[in-house]
Amino acid sequence: MRSLAAAILGLGLAANGIVMLAVPSDWYASIPGVSGTGPFNAHFIRDIGAAYLVAGSALAWFALRGTARPAAQAAAGFLALHAAIHIWDAAAGREHVHQLILADGALVLLPSLLAIWIAWPLSKIREKSNAQMVSAPLDR
After folding, report:
1. pLDDT, tens digit, for every residue of 70-93?
2. SS3 of the chain
3. Is the pTM of this model over 0.70?
C-alpha cells in the first residue's frame, strides 16, 4: 500500500515539478490561489519546481527500491517544511485561512502528510524503539 502511494505521489510531484520548470507561467495561472501569493516570478517557480522534481523522484525511487528510504525521508522533510510555511503564513495573517483550507489542504498539506506516512511507517519506528529499549542495558 505504501509503495503504491509512494509511486502515485512521487510521479504526481515530479510531474508538477516538470511543469513548473518547463512552463512556469502556465503553472502560475492554472494553480488555484497561487496568483494571490505575489507577482509572477519564473525563476522562483523554477527553483521550487526543481525541489518538487527531486522530491517526487525520491518518492518514486522509494516505491521501486525500499533501500531508498533516506531519499523518501528527505522528500517528506521538504514537503513538511513547505506545508509548515503555508500554515505559518496563514497563522501570521500573510495568507488567508480559506486559501489554506481550500487549496493548500489538498495541494500542500495532504501530500506532506502522505509523504511522512510513506517515509516513516509507525511499525518501523516501534521496531526501532523496541530494539533500542532491549539493547539499552548493553550500551552502558
Report:
1. 999 999 999 999 999 999 999 998
2. CHHHHHHHHHHHHHHHHHHHHHCHHHHHHHCCCHHHHCCCCHHHHHHHHHHHHHHHHHHHHHHHCHHHHHHHHHHHHHHHHHHHHHHHHHHCCCCCHHHHHHHHHHHHHHHHHHHHHHHCCHHHHHHHHHHHHHHHHHHC
3. yes
